[in-house]
Amino acid sequence: MKILAIESSCDETAAAVVEDGRNILSNIVASQVEEHKLYGGVVPEIASRRHAEAIVGVVDEAIKAAGCTLDNIDAVAVTYAPGLIGALLVGVNFAKGFALATNKPLIPVHHLRSHIASNYISHKELKPPFLCLVVSGGHSHIVEVRDYTDMKVIGRTRDDAAGEAFDKAARAMGIPYPGGVELDKIAEGGDDSAYPMPRPKVDGSPYDFSFSGLKTAVINLIHNKAQKGEQINVPDVCASYRKAVVGCLADNFLLVAEDLGYTTLVIAGGVSANSLLRRELQSRCQGKYDLYMPEKSLCGDNGAMVGAQAYYEYLAGHLAKSDLNAVATLPISENCF
Ligand code: KG4
Ligand code: ZN
């Protein structure tokens, strides 16, 4: 089954054709990052307008690059939640129009479920059940993936998401948006014990994360040094901060795995590209857990992951009608169509 999949939840206009949930036939991503960089973060209004401009061309390119015509496409899938509402609406309305005009099924896909599904492309043998750490710019969840479309959140951030914590700390050091990526690179050349950082825990909820205190600690450090006219060593701050954020993520993830008895562990989302998170989990999982990570090119937002999850939503009978709407916030365990 060939699914045309569309993603427009944030600042990438993306479309892909994916076969049977596992094989990428094409995967086109038009990034708006250069424009949002000017403002230090995603400007929702600009994102929506750029999606509207790009979507027809991106979809056309995805169909052609897959060697398909409209006749070869069996269904259209789209990210409908969660995300920036104006941005989501562009993809949702396009997909609805496409489904109506071609008389093909319309498959609504939850953005975080699709991040998890990027692993089905990278690892053909991977099947639920497993435990997944989903870490993106807007979410940090530990999710029990009981089946392809049956999920339960076990731990979550109480405040900032891990990606947001990286981006905001990077911004305080003058590193351009999206700072998480660059901070990761700079940290490779730093001493991670130069600036001791707190490891915040959430009282009474050992599986939950809290990153706002950690983010404030690094921002205060930068400001205090600046007030005293002292220089910070940027690579050392990046390395120390990254170690603390990754430590919190890995500690809680492995604690849940141990407590719930999961031996198959998976990571997903933009932050799953973080070099230290990948190394640290690889070394701590060795001999104890089977660890799966998406290839780096599939960690960020893309259409292929939407096509992968869409296949399993389709098999579960999750189809939308022509009144499908975009939803800004929606738990990963719920459907809203
Ligand atoms: O999943 P994603 O592409 O978009 C959302 O759904 O939010 O995640 C984007 C987030 C950004 O905060 C970005 O800075 C972060 O992922 N990110 C990273 C790395 N690559 C992307 N954070 C840390 N290290 C990285 N290598
Ligand atoms: Zn994402």
What does this structure look like?
The strands form 2 sheets. This protein has a 5-stranded mixed sheet, sandwiched between helices. It has a 5-stranded mixed sheet with strand order 8-7-6-9-10, sandwiched between helices. The chain has 10 helices and 10 strands. The two termini are 22 Å apart. The relative contact order is 0.19. The chain has helices spanning 33-37, 44-65, 85-102, 111-122, 162-172, 179-187, 212-227, 234-260, 275-285, 303-315; strands at residues 2-7, 12-19, 23-31, 75-81, 106-110, 130-135, 140-147, 150-156, 264-268, 290-292. The model has no long low-confidence stretch (mean pLDDT 97). Helix 5 packs parallel to helix 7 and helix 5 packs antiparallel against helix 8. The protein has 337 residues and is of the alpha/beta class. Helix content is 43%, strand content 19%. The protein folds into 2 domains: 2-116 and 300-315, ATPase, nucleotide binding domain (Nucleotidyltransferase, domain 5, 2-Layer Sandwich); 128-297, ATPase, nucleotide binding domain (Nucleotidyltransferase, domain 5). Strand 4 (75-81), helix 3 and strand 5 (106-110) form a beta-alpha-beta unit. Zinc ion binds at residues 111, 115, 136, 269-270, 301. Residues 10, 115, 136-138, 163, 166-167, 178, 180-181, 184, 269-271, 273-274, 300-301 line the site of 5'-O-[(R)-(carboxyoxy)(hydroxy)phosphoryl]adenosine.
